[in-house]
Amino acid sequence: MKTFQIDQRPRRNRQTASIRSMVRETRLHPSDFILPLFLVDGQEKQVPIESMPGCFRLSPDLVVKECREAHQLEIPAVALFPALPDLLKDKAASESTNPDGLLQQTIRQIKNAVPEITVITDVAMDPYSIDGHDGLVQDGEILNDATLEILVEMAVSQAEAGTDIIAPSDMMDGRVGAIRQGLDQHGYTRVGILAYSAKYASAFYGPFRDALDSEPRSGDKKTYQMDPANRREAVREILLDIDQGADMVMVKPAVIYLDVIAEIKARTNLPVVAYNVSGEYAMIKSADRLGWLDGEAAMIEMLTAIKRSGADIILTYFAKEIAKLC
Ligand code: PBG
Known about the structure:
Blueprint (H helix, E strand, L loop, with lengths): L16 H7 L9 E7 L6 E3 L7 E3 L1 H13 L4 E6 L19 H12 L4 E6 L12 E3 L2 E3 H18 L3 E4 L6 H11 L6 E8 L6 H7 L19 H12 L4 E5 L5 H10 L4 E5 L1 H12 L5 H14 L4 E4 L2 H7 L1
Helix pairs in contact: 2-3, 3-4, 4-5, 7-8, 9-10
């Protein structure tokens, strides 16, 4: 057999599982993940979400159970999303500041039962808005500054209930600064802000909107969420949020925006969070169910790629599944 003179043979570093594990550049750990949870009013209630196989809307008692399990799996944090009946929705999202609202009650129960787990709560009007928009709608327009007032009250109400981190997901201008000020004025300097800084107007949020029944009733979100074609604008948004006091910044979605994650990582020393969104989850789950690919292997590859691109933390519906494997 002829041997060629080849100076560099990269395959040497790939020849056994033990060598591959030694030279591996990216490792996943349960502490990399945030587990999103959907809330629904009631007791022992578990409503499947059809477009997100394996995900449920859970009543507060079952949410607490999930938090216990997440904590045992070494997942450090959960992100909460309340699903409300239309009856409780209005134009001004007034239910969002109800001290006994579903979200506020659930925060308190989690903090009592599993104080070690970090609770992250979304600030945006859409779960509470009859218009299904993240901001206040007037004559078909989303009002920026009038929305800020509501968002600040919402954030303070969540802080009062005991949340650890506020995550504004609305994309209004100036929200991070306004929320920081509002929290500080009310004595909540300890409450952090995870800013959904580069949040794109994406078709990949479809299953999430099913889960919360929060599809916009008219129009779309393109006047506030970012154009998927833009990368430099993501840098602008992130720098603005950092300037206004964000503690962590987020890119959303994750998998089809790895270039944005890499760029943001290079531009900031703050922790970079990536949101592996509902559509990205549903794609793998549905293909797996059809037998078209190996869902577990695809999940590991997808999450590894997100981390490899520069994400420090990944918000993902796969959190429990992956935590059990790593
Ligand atoms: C609401 C919000 C959305 C998501 C998180 N917070 C939907 C939207 O902006 O329409 C999407 C999450 C997902 O798709 O997994 N502000």
